[in-house]
Design goal:
The chain has 279 residues and is α/β, with parallel strands linked by helices. Helix content is 46%, strand content 15%.
């Protein structure tokens, strides 16, 4: 059975990734919606052309909103009223759903999915090669994904996950979560915490270079310690930090982090604030 898909933002960053994944699948009839000239040029480079919005939505089983987060609410207000009853909207980020920005309509489903990206712990290929797969979903390295049925009948979860596995293929594990759990992961865990810490690490690396450490030496030393310390902290190895290293870590954590940082970052009030700003 052919599944009709209307892909909004088909020529954008995520839209092009999904386009590249779906364009050769026989089981999908994909209609590519792209208003911008630059996006249409990217579609043309792939031998594809844009479809008018009303034609794309006619009989569409799945509507993918691969548009910027801050446009999701506006686009859903335009698109969702035109959709067939029982069809599904697929979102690529939980912020708009969590923030209550989606158009309210009870007879369609909202499904959210997001990639975890290939793991640095068990990636199949080397990141030091000529063209490493940093992002995933290119038919090369497996990745895991998270999914949430934000609204709709329970049986629609399977329909959404099957589609998510295709747009992010190859997929190893798909984790079924709630919208609220997805927001804990992103933006809280991987953007607010991990992203902030990585920028701090980069600043520390640059500072080491500024005060005289040769840049390549600093980079080699830092990236090597990424591996061993990741293994120690997350329990992949039983090889511990030295007593001196553990003491330095505990002392420095007090200099870098305020004592209640987790309660602040993961609080409902903070997540409400951040998702509202995103969407």
């Amino acid at each position: 059975m052919t599944v009709s898909v209307a892909l909004f933002g088909a020529g954008g960053k995520m839209g092009c990734r999904i386009t590249d994944q779906l364009k050769d699948y026989d089981r999908y009839d994909v209609r590519y919606v792209e208003p911008s000239d630059s996006g249409r040029e990217r579609l043309a480079e792939r031998g594809l052309s844009a479809t008018p919005e009303n034609e794309a939505l006619d009989g569409a089983d799945i509507v993918v909103l691969a548009v910027p987060d801050d446009l999701i609410g506006t686009v859903s207000e335009d698109v969702v009223p035109q959709m067939d009853r029982g069809s599904m909207v697929v979102l690529l980020d939980p912020a708009a759903a969590y923030a209550g920005k989606l158009y309210e309509r009870a007879d369609i489903s909202y499904f959210i999915t997001h990639p975890a990206h290939p793991s640095i712990v068990d990636a199949n290929s080397s990141l030091s090669g000529d063209n490493p797969d940093w992002f995933g979903g290119q038919g090369r390295e497996e990745q895991d994904i998270v999914c949430a049925l934000h609204q709709g009948p329970n049986e629609d979860y399977d329909r959404g996950e099957a589609f998510a596995r295709d747009i992010y293929a190859p997929v190893r594990r798909a984790h079924e979560l709630t919208t609220e759990q997805m927001v804990v992961l992103e933006p809280a865990l991987v953007e607010m915490v991990l992203g902030s810490c990585l920028y701090a690490i980069r600043e520390a690396h640059e500072h080491a270079v500024d005060i005289g450490v040769p840049e390549q030496a600093a980079k080699d030393f830092l990236f090597g310690h990424f591996r061993v310390e990741l293994g120690i902290v997350f329990g992949f190895t039983d090889f511990p930090f030295s007593d001196g290293a553990q003491e330095a870590i505990e002392q420095t954590k007090q200099d870098i982090f305020v004592s209640d940082w987790k309660e602040t970052v993961f609080s409902e009030e903070r997540l409400d604030e951040v998702t509202s700003e995103i969407a």
